[in-house]
Amino acid sequence: MKTNSKIKFTLFLLPLALMAADGVAQRYPGPLSPEESLKKLNVAPGFSAQIYAAEPFVMDPVALEFDEQGNVYVVEMPDYPYEVEPGKGHGRIKMLSDTNGDGRIDKASIFAENVTEATSILPWKGGLIVTAAPNILYLKDTNGDGKSDTSEILFSGFFQNNSEAQVTSLRFGIDNWIYANNRGQAGKVTFSKTPNDPPVEVRGADFRFRLDRNVFELETGPGQFGQTINDWGHRFFTENSIHLQQAVIPWRYTHRHPFLPTSKFNVTVTDHEEIMFQETAPPYWRAERSAQRNKMYKENNMNRIEYAEDRFTGASGGTLYNGDALPKEFYGNIFTTDVSGNLVHRDIIAPDPKSPVYIAKRADKEKNREFIYSTDPWFRPVISSVGPDGYLYVLDYYRQHIETPVSIPDDLKADMDFMAGSDKGRIYRIIPQGAAYKNTAVNLKDMPSAKLVEVLGRNNGWWRSQAQRLLLERQDKSVVPVVKAFFNTSKDARARLHALYVLEGLNALSADVVKKGLVDSAPGVRENALMLAESFSETLPLIIQKTNDADKRVALQATLSVGNFNNKEVITALANVIEKYGEDVWFRNAVLSSNAGSSAELLKVLGQRSSFTQKEGAWKNLFLQDLSAIVGARNNKEQVNAYLDIISQPALAKSQTVLVKGLKMGLSKNEASDSKLKEALSKVNADTEQEAKAGIVVLKSIY
After folding, report:
1. Maximum distance among all alpha carbons in the chain?
2. One-character DSSP codes across 524-564
3. Nearest to 429 by CA among 357, 486, 372
4. Do the Cβ atoms of 596 and 573 come closer than 8 Å?
5. Which of 186, 252, 293, 539 is the most buried (most CB within 10 A)?
6. Alpha-carbon torsion angle 3, 6, 7, 8, nearest 10
7. 592 close to 633: Cβ distance less than 8 angstroms
8. CA-CA distance, 617 to 625, in Å (whole number)?
9. Residue 388: φ, ψ to 5°
10. pLDDT at position 188, please?
11. Residue 394 and residue 668: Cα distance in Å, rounded?
């Protein structure tokens, strides 16, 4: 019997196909069931993990939020890593339910679907604010059927070409502002509530907004996927290979004038570098790509190395734990997930008594391991969340591959299925070992406003934040006396701070209340009271006094707040700050960020103090050079002329070289400089005292 040639060819190819499939299976193991994967999950001693939700009820989860009624919302992002047009994506927001109270989700309903590139959500006025590049949306169920039936575009114009670098991480701050990460991407953003305002360019920044007052502004960053805010309003964020950064000085201070020599106002706060303890081998493609790149670096004599493992490369989802179900020592810790390392890292965040910047440390019991690690390479923790029950929830994207295809060479991605796992997803609940899960009933929606004020005193930060948000939304002014009494009597500093900002949100803040906040026993309350005091000129003497506060974060904020005023006392106060804290770059930038702190008058005051002119140190030269550069860049004829007179004084003779160098630097950068000035600047040198003096003469001839 004659065999068909097509069948022969197929039979010949079959062993080759099986061999190829075998090779792929060896390179990239297959998925495990939720229960099997749970067995591969290793949590630090004293804790255990439970499955809270899994497929088919949840798939591709990237955000989890509990609203004021205890409703559980999860954002699903199945389209990653491919880009889709707005409105054509398969993204979903689901409402999850545990119908039998056993602590595991057994029902899911669609709240919104076809939401392209949705990455984070935040409850607001009975609906959800949603980041979905290029927009931020507001979705709401108005008829009670559990599904959004209204969709409003609040903001539009954000970058949308890479899902790993889009607008995300919505967080309600203690100060009534809603914060979000933008990865510093370019975009001309419009706000639907202020249609007559020009678009805001968000390049290089994160941002914040308030829907109760319809304001939108840039914020220090930029962060990527993952942002968290502590009890006192300090922001921390992640950025792939940098697992924890702090935004030290807010944008509104650093951009009071456009001439600061530096534009970086965040800092890595870890004391243990970017090393992680990974228990899974790097995937085949990553190991091969790193080997190829390192070979190229070596051949081109480049002092670079790419790590395929044991270094943070997919850090995301930093979450500050502020619940009450884990041991007290975990309160204030930040949990950062890493999808590449298949782990969750924990940092203990502690104030640095010598600096306004925090320090992030590993726990003693986690010096050589991570808080959570898995030996299942499909375990892809993207973010965590704290629930009203006080437990920590970890979202597992559960994918075979996590990487943008454009970053992988064609030969390596030929046998990779980037969508493998898009029908899966898990959420784990982390609880103390041996503890029984306790279901927590939530219904703040119908709670009277006066009762909500009492909730501001709860130990679990989720409850405090929800109560504050609801009081802000309601704008119930009848509760003001209750809030003031609560502020005056509460023994919990966190509760007092919530009360301060509830009053601010209700437009019921007074100078007397702020003054009391300025002398509060808790540094975090004093620090925030300083920001609020900027609206009350009569508090200036107290603000100035706080530049000498024993707490460095309070002293830094006082320096920033003083700079919002402009009189003789301010100049004196800022000069005092430079003498006391000048060695700290954050204090120098805080002074220079204000108009008063970057003026000829400031140098005049310092030049009259032998305690300053006789000081030695590299920091002093850096400060004087930066001050001169700002004066030069501003290029105000009257100010430059006065400045030249001041730096000619004998008391500043030892500093004239750096003063003239800085002035030349600033004047050279000024776009308004005319040809006559540019010609004069070409003749100015300041390498020696004699050259500096000659340079002053040349510049005086112009001004």
Report:
1. 112
2. HHHHHHHHHHTT-GGGHHHHHHGGG-SSHHHHHHHHHHHTT
3. 372
4. no
5. 539
6. 70
7. no
8. 13
9. -65, -20
10. 95
11. 52
Q: How far apart are CA 24 and CA 547, in angstroms?
A: 63
d(C-alpha 17, C-alpha 468), whole Å: 61
Please check whether residue 73 is in contact with residue 111, taking contact to mean a CB–CB distance below 8 angstroms. yes
**pLDDT over threshold 90, residue 24:** no
At what angle are helices 493-505 and 511-518 packed, to 10 degrees? 160
pLDDT at residue 378 above 70?
A: yes
Question: Distance between CA 640 and CA 553 in Å, rounded?
Answer: 33
- Residue 519, classed as helix, strand or coil, is coil
Mean of the per-residue pLDDT values of the chain: 92
Q: What secondary structure letter does DSSP report for 620?
A: H
Return contacts of 538-542, CB within 8 angstroms, 24+ apart: 538/511, 539/511, 539/514, 539/515, 540/565, 540/569, 540/570, 541/569, 542/515, 542/518
What does the H/E/C string look like for 567-592?
CHHHHHHHHHHHHHHCCCHHHHHHHH
Cα gap 665→64, rounded to integer Å:
50
Residue 229 has pLDDT above 90, yes or no: yes
SS3 458: coil
Angle between helical axes of 585-592 and 618-634 (0-180°, round to 10):
20
CA distance 52 to 430: 9
How high is the pLDDT of residue 673?
A: 67
Give the separation between CA 328 and CA 349, rounded to whole angstroms. Answer: 14
The answer to whether 216 and 194 have CB atoms below 8 angstroms apart is yes
Question: Would you say the C-alpha torsion 619, 620, 626, 630 has a positive or negative sign?
Answer: positive
Pairing of strands 372-374, 242-247: unpaired
Q: Between the CA of residue 601 and those of 338, 533, 585, what are the distances in Å? A: 50, 25, 21
Distance CA 644, CA 501 (A): 46
Mean pLDDT computed over 186-203: 93
- 56 preceded by a cis bond (ω within 30 of 0): yes
Q: Which residues contact 613 (CB under 8 A, 6 or more apart)?
A: 606, 607, 651, 652, 654, 655
**For a pLDDT cut of 70, what percent of the chain falls above it?**
96
Please state, in angstroms and as integers, the Cα–Cα distance from residue 542 to each residue in 503, 524, 545, 555, following that order: 20, 16, 5, 12
What's the rounded Cα separation, in Å, for the pair 452 and 432? Answer: 29
3-class secondary-structure state, position 130: strand
* 632-643: pLDDT as tens digits: 999 998 999 999
> Residue 580: pLDDT above 50?
yes
Total number of residues shown for the chain: 703
User: Do the beta carbons of residue 317 and residue 382 sit within 8 Å?
Assistant: yes
Q: Cα separation of 362 and 44, whole Å?
A: 13
Residue listed under structure tokens 């004391």: 271
How many whole angstroms separate alpha carbon 263 and alpha carbon 567? 27
Q: What is the mean pLDDT of residues 97-126?
A: 94
Give the model confidence (pLDDT) of 307-338 as tens digits.
888 888 888 989 999 999 999 999 999 999 99
| pLDDT at site 698 | 85
Quick one: average pLDDT of 398-403? 94
Beta strand pairing status for 188-191 and 266-268? unpaired
User: Contacts for 540-544 with beta carbons within 8 Å, 24 or more apart?
Assistant: 540/565, 540/569, 540/570, 541/569, 542/515, 542/518, 543/518, 544/569, 544/570, 544/573
What per-residue confidence (pLDDT) applies to 674? 75
